[in-house]
Amino acid sequence: MFSKFNAVYPQTQETPGSKIPGFLPKFREASALYLTHFLRTFSLSLPGIYVPIFIFGLAQKPAVLAGDFLNNIFWVLVYYFIYSIFVTLANIFLSNLLFQKLGFRVSILLSMLFLVLVVACLFELEENFSLIYLAPVLTALAVHFYWIPFHIFFIRKANFGGNFGNESASQVLTVTLAGAFGPLAAGLILSFFDFKILFLVTGFLLFLSAVPTLFLVTEAGHSEHRFKKIYTEYIFNPKLWKLNLAFIGAGIDGIIFDIFWPILLFLVLKNFVQLGGLVSFSMVLSALIMVWVGRILESRKAMFLRKASVFLNSALYFFRIVAVSPGSLFAIDVFDRLNGKVYGTAFLAESYDKAKLMHESDFIIYRETMTHLANILAMILAFAVILSFENWKLVFVLPALGSLLVFLLYI
């Protein structure tokens, strides 16, 4: 993503013996980024876990495949397949719009507006099912215009020395705290109202989330980014084959988890409050270890912990295949959230550390492109597995194998 010396990064001027004036603006900007991320995560945590379930359970979907279950799964995969294609295209063709025309702060604001439109589409999806084709395109634009600026801002504004162990842990802790009560709140809302009320609340909160970054984070000009350079120096660079496979594995792992784990939980629990309560409880519990995770990732013990988390993450997917009772699902979710904080934080920290050693902006574009290309592959493979095997839960073999590829990031 970047060259070793980034002239774009607006440095704060310091004189010997006066570090506080330079520290305070950076602390303010880092705090603004955390606050934006907190508000955005909380907003999306309300419907986030339920979007696959919402599409899965919609009545009057066009019958493409025989059997309600297969047809429901088909339309969920269509949604995420369209999303994955368009976010990949956005990474390739719209990155210079983000860097040269909009800037990072405006881009983050625009991403929130796209998310509000997504919420509006979901709001009307029951009455107008054709919006199933528009909503994932808007989601793709929202993801593109948020995550690339956020990651680059975070690398430049949130690091106070050393590697990104503590900073990545703080970011994951922010997400965990913001998302911990969202599923429970969503479950309670859905117990008394419907998905439309849930989506209205989400849309309102999203408008608020862009404000801290828009007004409190400074930004200088940005250089041009050519995807051809990213294509040749990263994606098809034989020296980076381990990194490529690790990002592909992470992309497969992430999207299969996001889609099929909530569906499995709901099919077994059959209750929105129990589902939201389970996720909220396990997220709060996992949040308690985040300070320890950040410290350990800065220490010499970090590499062993990172590698161990990969194998445990993979193993938990095989347990999902055989789990049938609410108690077993509860245990898997708790263990997964606990280990996932190590697994996810380590992946994030390693990505940021590698970005510091390369061209940071190009590296983030590259990473986002690779993970979303993997999303496309995951949707195709998931559809093939579900059509080929009677036990649809065998789809969890895909993220189990994808997780093992992440191990290449650490060797």
Report on this model:
There is one protein chain. The protein is mainly α. It has a single domain, classed as Growth Hormone, Chain: A. It contains 18 helices and no strands. Helix 2 packs across helix 12, helix 8 runs antiparallel to helix 13 and helix 13 crosses helix 16. The longest helix is centred in the C-terminal third of the chain and has 32 residues.
Quick take:
By secondary structure, this protein is mostly helical. It has 18 helices and no strands.
The average pLDDT value, as a whole number, equals 81
- Summed up, the helix count is 18
Taken from the alpha-carbon principal axes, the silhouette is globular
CATH-assigned fold name? Growth Hormone, Chain: A
Biggest sheet details: none
CATH architecture descriptor text: Up-down Bundle
Distance between the termini: 21 Å
Task: From the structure above, extract its key features.
411 residues; mainly alpha; Growth Hormone, Chain: A; 18 helices; 0% strand; globular; disordered N terminus
Provide the fold topology.
Blueprint: H1 20-48, H2 51-57, H3 68-93, H4 95-102, H5 104-124, H6 135-157, H7 165-180, H8 182-192, H9 195-209, H10 211-216, H11 227-235, H12 241-269, H13 272-287, H14 290-297, H15 302-322, H16 326-357, H17 360-388, H18 397-406
